[in-house]
Design brief:
Number of helices: 9
Mean pLDDT: 83
Structural class: alpha+beta
Shape: globular
Strand content: 25-35%
Distance between the termini: 42 Å
Largest sheet: 6 strands, antiparallel
Number of strands: 22
Helix content: 25-40%
Length: 455
């Protein structure tokens, strides 16, 4: 026989400490006394212990604190052998609690999320915060929610046999073909439609005749000056009680990855945190001088440039997984172009993103534009025309992958595309505190619309 008595040494209801033992305990709730009956000696024995509480939330396979469509994706990846579930994730995946994780658990998870009423019906839902999560700048007008800023998006989970989204066109549909609003529609992270909005109303069929629960996202891919794209309705054929639900917010942990320019942002950020601890939330940095996307793909060795985390060099995706970062900002490019060219650099970005998502499937990746150069500092391959082409390629990559491209570079240049004097610290590529003021304004604006602090 055994018993565990917890919180010994903590305060009683009266507010008086139980006793003065072990004042160095970090948390009384994670310590206690184990009392065991010894049959041989016929008396009780006790010992103090610290322990870890394993919190289980059945169905929360990606361990983000919610049970939703993203857990179905994590479960499917595990069943297909793409990932291996351990710890809380493995326990949460055993939905029927029979000691194994299999297709039966997945089926029960799908049924639970669907909350099936048994009656199939046509249902229409507005694009409002009751049913969807809205990111960045949106405007609601006459029953339509407009995505009016590049990167603005709607996200939700849909459980239905058939699912469609009706989009609305703004005055931008009258623009020339190259200047109309462009949008992307994603189902479970896969781009299913990337098109210019050229009509007043357009319906996108997400799937038809197949019962499923999936994560759905609609994002404005073009700049605001071309006009917005509206979401008029979400139409489903479903027996679920609540077939459309907002994608839950995630706890914040931001990671910045990059080269010496990002190191400058780190130093600026740290100086601001010294006087304002809430300046940019919980941030981490994996930066090295001369680092690039190509370096990130190299094996760890005594010659590699991988940033150090927990005392050793690691691939950045391993460090991201260990620190639990969910928002990842990447700023590479200057150290890649001369070696890999523009196309090769974009391909390396794609590979890095793939590696990050393999290790942290629910990470959200933001690509920061490659920074432009000071007048007279350009080289044969490292020059502003190539950097502009690179940024165009990165923007297109982001639109295809449903990621946000963060254009900081264009805010720091003159009308000929060269970095302004006041923003250049070395008349080359490195930047001043005044430039990082611009970084802060842009990144905090993105955070205000896309990131929930300390949720």
């Amino acid at each position: 026989k055994a018993a565990l008595i917890t919180q010994i040494g903590g305060k009683l209801k009266s507010g008086i400490p139980h006793d003065g033992r072990a004042p160095d305990y970090d948390d009384w709730t994670l310590n206690g006394d184990i009392i065991v009956w010894n049959d041989v000696l016929s008396h009780y024995e006790s010992d103090s212990a610290s322990f870890e509480i394993i919190v289980t939330d059945v169905g929360d396979v990606n361990v983000d604190g919610y049970f939703d469509a993203s857990d179905l994706t994590a479960m499917q990846d595990a069943l297909h052998g793409k990932t291996v579930l351990t710890g809380n994730a493995a326990q949460n995946a055993d939905f029927n609690e029979d000691g194994t994780t299999d297709i039966f658990d997945l089926a029960l998870m799908q049924r639970e999320l669907a909350a099936d009423t048994g009656v199939v019906s046509d249902q229409t839902f507005p694009c409002t915060s009751e049913y969807v999560k809205l990111q960045s700048r949106t405007v609601a007008e006459n029953g339509v929610t407009w995505l009016v800023q590049s990167g603005a998006a709607m996200e939700c989970s849909i459980s239905a046999e058939t699912a469609k989204i009706t989009l609305a066109g703004s005055s931008g549909i009258k623009n020339g073909a190259d200047y109309r609003p462009r949008y992307g529609v994603y189902v479970d992270g896969e781009l299913v439609e990337d098109a210019l909005m050229d009509e007043a109303s357009h319906t996108v069929t997400l799937w038809e005749g197949e019962q499923k629960t999936a994560a759905v996202k609609v994002m404005l891919l073009s700049e605001a000056m071309y006009g917005g794209v509206g979401i008029a309705s979400i139409d489903v054929v479903s027996s679920a009680a609540i077939p459309v639900k907002p994608t839950p917010q995630r706890k914040l942990c931001i990671e910045f990855i990059g080269d010496s320019i990002t190191l400058g942002w780190k130093n600026y950020n740290n100086s601001k945190l010294a006087s304002d601890p809430s300046f940019f939330g919980e941030t981490h940095f994996l930066c090295e001088g001369s680092y690039g996307a190509g370096h990130a793909l190299e094996p760890v060795s005594s010659e590699s440039l991988h940033p150090v985390y927990q005392g050793e060099q690691r691939p950045i995706w391993e460090s991201i997984r260990l620190m639990g970062a969910k928002k990842v900002f990447i700023c590479f490019g200057l150290n890649d172009i001369a070696v890999y060219g523009v196309d090769g650099t974009v391909e390396n970005f794609n590979k890095v993103c793939d590696k990050i998502l393999e290790n942290v499937p629910d990470a959200e990746i933001y690509i920061i534009s490659a920074m432009y150069m000071y007048r007279g500092s350009e080289m044969t391959k490292l020059n502003n025309p190539n950097l502009r082409t690179l940024n165009a390629g990165l923007r297109d990559m982001c639109s295809r992958r449903g990621m946000l491209f963060v254009d900081i570079a264009s805010h720091l240049v003159d009308n000929e595309g060269y970095v302004l004097e006041k923003y250049s610290s070395d008349h080359y590529v490195h930047q001043t505190a005044e430039a990082y003021d611009i970084w802060a304004d842009i990144l905090r604006s993105i955070a205000a619309h896309n990131i929930v602090w300390g949720y």
